[in-house]
């Protein structure tokens, strides 16, 4: 391996260890509380939320196919990752600005942040996939992006499960359903919603909403970008 690849490999190994940590007592307690809270919501509310997120994600997944860049071919890992970091920076700053504007606009405008931020996150994943040389016209590559998204914004318990699928992606993709509707959308929306609830709740408050929206969106995009880089490194570098 080149020096750049060796550095990336060491960073990947450290990340893999973090992804495979068992849930801590605090993680288990938080999950228990959130599960109890979710149980209080009527079934029709869960169905409505699942349908809404499913349609938003599907719209971006299939709509972005027409605007995403062509897969980058014949480039060294260092070149690819330099370009990826530039895209992360661009989308991170875009999301931060969007969070500040919606946070400053009060309760109703803050609600608009949810679909806007979701679209920015998924568009970032499309760009990262192309820069690592993967063609998102392949249905399984789009499902890979959903798994990266789920890995980033889930509890540690779910993260352990999703990580194993991504670490063995070439075998796992052979078992994927032929229809995107068969994806576990309910778990996807619950984990995502639960994960960002605390980070985004304060954005609805007056005065501090703009600052909270800016900082929360900045960190969420940075986290998603870092996770995506590690997931694609697993597909390019030797298995640990």
TrEMBL record:
Pfam families reported in the protein's UniProt record: EcsC
Organism domain of life: Bacteria
InterPro entries recorded: EcsC
PANTHER family according to UniProt: PROTEIN ECSC
Protein name listed in UniProt: EcsC family protein
């Amino acid at each position: 391996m080149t020096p750049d690849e060796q550095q990336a490999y060491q960073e990947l190994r450290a990340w893999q260890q973090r992804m495979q940590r068992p849930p801590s007592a605090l993680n288990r307690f938080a999950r228990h509380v959130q599960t109890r809270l979710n149980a209080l919501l009527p079934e029709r509310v869960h169905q409505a939320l699942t349908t809404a997120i499913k349609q938003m994600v599907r719209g971006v997944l299939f709509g972005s196919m027409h605007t995403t860049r062509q897969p980058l071919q014949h480039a060294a890992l260092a070149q690819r990752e330099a370009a990826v970091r530039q895209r992360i920076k661009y989308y991170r700053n875009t999301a931060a600005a969007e969070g500040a504007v919606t946070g400053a606009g009060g309760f109703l405008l803050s609600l608009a942040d949810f679909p806007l931020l979701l679209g920015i996150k998924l568009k970032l994943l499309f760009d990262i996939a192309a820069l690592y040389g993967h063609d998102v016209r392949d249905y399984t590559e789009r499902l890979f992006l959903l798994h990266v998204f789920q890995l980033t914004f889930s509890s540690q318990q779910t993260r352990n499960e999703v990580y194993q699928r991504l670490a063995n992606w070439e075998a796992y993709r052979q078992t994927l359903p032929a229809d995107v509707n068969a994806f576990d959308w309910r778990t996807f929306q619950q984990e995502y919603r639960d994960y960002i609830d605390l980070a985004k709740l304060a954005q609805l408050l007056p005065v501090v909403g703009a600052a909270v929206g800016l900082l929360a969106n900045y960190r969420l995009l940075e986290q998603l970008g870092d996770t995506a880089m590690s997931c694609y490194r697993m597909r390019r570098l030797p298995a640990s």
